[in-house]
Amino acid sequence: MITFTVDSINKILPILISETKQSGHYFLFDDGVETHRVLDLEPTVDCFECNGQYNYETIGYILKLANDIMISFKVCDDEIIVC
Length: 83
Hints:
mainly beta; elongated; six-stranded mixed beta sheet
């Protein structure tokens, strides 16, 4: 079980990407008031066409928490931007 905050999302993001889908791994998000269980981390993908080929680029993430809470964020130069 790992607890993290919005300030440490950029440090734990690689672990969240690889481990969130596996059962038995629990992550908790502390928003400063409550601690929420992380249910899923879903990438936000942009699809564009260039020279007849489709390219997909991850432009952000949606952190899905218990109690139907979702936090959308982007990572820009090791800085988290909450959308």
